[in-house]
Amino acid sequence: MATTNEKVEHAATATGADSPPEYEANEIGQRARGDEWVYRTRRVGGIAVPAYASPPIQLGVVAFVCFLCPGMFNAVSGLGGGGQLDPTTANNANVALYSTFSVVGFFAGTVANRLGIKLTLSFGGFGYFLYIASFLSYNHNQNAGFPIFAGALLGVCAGLLWCAQGAIMMSYPPEASKGRYISWFWMIFNLGAVIGSLIPLGQNIHKVTDGSVSDGTYVGFMVLTFLGAVLAWCLVDARKVQRADGSRVVLMKHPTWQSELLGLWETLRTDSWIVFLFPMFFASNWFYTYQFNDVNLARFNPRTRALNNVLYWTSQIIGAYVFGYALDVTRVRRTVRAKVAWIVLFVVTMAIWGGGYAWQKQYNRATATTEDWTRSGYVGPMFLYMFYGFYDAAWQTCVYWFMGALTNNGRKLANFAGFYKGIQSAAAAIMFRIDALKAPYMNEFASCWALLAGSLVIALPLIWVKVRDTIPLEEDVKFSDETIEEVMPTVPAPEVHHEKL
Fold this sequence. Notes:
With 501 residues, the protein is mainly α. 68% of the residues lie in helices and 1% in strands. The protein is built from 19 helices and two strands. The chain has a two-stranded antiparallel sheet. Helix 4 runs parallel beside helix 6 (117-141), helix 7 (145-171) runs antiparallel to helix 16 and helix 8 (178-203) runs antiparallel to helix 13. The two termini are 38 Å apart.
């Protein structure tokens, strides 16, 4: 009996070796799929534009939803204290947020698989709009209950949004392009935080004394997050998405609540090795509280915090680009790339957080004073904060890539993404509560560094043993009700050609 790879090789012979492979694949794929407009490729000014239902375009839509929703949330959070002078209310709101996020996130794969991507993402986007609106209200009435309620609701919404996003980012791309897709998403998403950070920078450019950000800052963020929730409806259903080679995303054709709840348990049973990544999940948001509240808010005035925010998220774009493309170097086997990524991540952890230790020794809660960018010693902490942003992108990109290297099944990856965001959020809730209780800055710093280094050590067995050079299609369809014939490539996708945004 012919294997899947042999069937693809036969298709390559049938199409002819002398044809331009990418054009040939797109044309044959379009004829196979019919003339529905979402499958038509176009040329704009001589540039080939992928079909609307192709993975790069769909990832672009999801990236801009996150650009407008979580991106703006990150811009507000990066100011420290949700843009307020006293971070207590924001800390309590974030405890509520990440508490509900941790519960909903863990089970969000079940919901996303049952309800579909569009509804899941759009509902998720609404929570970001309400959360920012609550701080606009707090500016006027000091009612702490509204931000805490909005935070709890946002935890539900964000758990669903990030699960859907993770499933798309890891399951839509071909195996050889997963690092690039992750980097494209992370770059666009964090561009939202960069642009969002420019809003408070412009609003507070002349504000050298401490205080809360202006109403106009919150209104601007509210408009953008609302647009993000609406944009989610521009996605096509996951079952309509097809790659340039004609292959489709492996899903459940007829999901039910029962099948997806059982699928969550089945994922843990069949892929129990994923627990070795759980400590990395836990560490991945733990350090945000320290960086935003105990470094940026504690040591800098409003306009300098806003500038630091811009630089932090810009560095995330750089980090995502460097690591995402490095993880897809095809000249090196994927198993080798995984091990090299682990080594580089461990070295970078020691270097950047070692620099952070030297900075943290200089102040504590009793001695911390806010400073302006005009101070002569500002350049050192500015670069440290930029390296913190670079490191965050490197960490998140590697974690997503490790998960994507374990399977190509969209249903299973939705559950992986749910585990990731749920555990990540539980850690964030704990850390925000620790900060709200005024724990010493050095203690919080030490917990960040220890968790990051320790979780890398725990993840090493999975990275060493379970990451393979490729996952057979026969294995991916076992976790769905689809057949190989329904999802296999109809034409070959040459290794030297990669889909581009």
